[in-house]
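Hi Q.,

Before the meeting this afternoon, I wanted you to have the aspartic acid prediction in hand. No need to reply - just skim if you have a minute. The sequence and ligand are here:
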Amino acid sequence: MISAYPHLIDLNDYPVTWWNGLLAQAEDIMNRPFLYANSCSGKIMGTLFYEPSTRTQMSFQTAMLRLGGTIIGFDNPQTSSVAKGENLKDTTKIISGYSDVLVIRHPTVGAAKAAALTADCPVINAGDGGHLHPTQTLTDLLTLKAEKKTLSGLTIGLCGDLLNGRTVHSLCKAMSCYENNHFIMISTKELKMPSYIKDTIRAHGGTFEETDSLEEALPKLDVLYMTRIQRERFASPEEYEAQKDTYILTTQKMKLAKPDMIVMHPLPRVDEIEVAVDDDPRALYFKQAKYGMYIRMSLILTMLQSTIKTELLAGQVHKGIACKNPKCITNQEYYLPKSFTGTGTTLTCEYCDERLLLEH
Ligand code: ASP
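Predicted structure with the ligand bound:
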């Protein structure tokens, strides 16, 4: 299914040259903001936040306001008709008709793609469950480019909840498209990186190793990307309690790191980085959040100017086959076409990327 609009659902739907163009434009916006102050004048951005957000939501809003545009939307679905039982399709159809660009965050995997299927304007994925977060990754790419001066040849440590953390999923998929990046995945065995992300890294020629020791990994790293344990994605409080506080970055541990290693974090921080680390010049996470506003300015501008059409579903609709991932949007919004790529006994759901093994 080809949509008439440019959507950003997964960064890897676009070529690296497109990302590089966004980064270059963001750098220009940082240097010459006055040139862009009215570039979205008369345009409206709709924001549908079905899940809590501070930075993503407010940086998108600020970005649009700094471009001279205006904003509408909700940050609590309970104050909208969602509380009356309205489905995602209807809400998207209506608000996209009011807006020039729509930003959506949703707790369910694949929701942004589902919204794009019906939207009458470009849709930007601001986080779909534990799946992807492409605009955080654009933020991270801009931070790396500005602070490390390169996007290649880096050893990147990813620490914490690698299973449920959508930011590390998108980051690995993107950074493996640049040359010679090596990932060190630091997690407990319960919270390891999903296999479809590791497959993508391999397919792009990237390399990775897995460990449960932050201390052992630290001396090797150019970048340490810390994440919080995603409490809201656990099946029970007990499972969360068993994982929390496993990895805490302290000033003591920072002594093991290279003098030019940088510490990134998509935020919010819970307690995985001791507050005293904030005073270390290698702690980049607050600056990183500010880069997020500039890259979102660049993205909004590009989406409003682009005439690209997006291929949303490229596979086949299989009647009678359902995705086995309970967190997939197709198991919540039943009207969605259940579309899969692949052939034979191995199909991949086009909404959540989960692999489905069929039995004969
Ligand atoms: N703010 C990021 C996200 O929305 C990271 C997090 O919540 O832990 O995924």
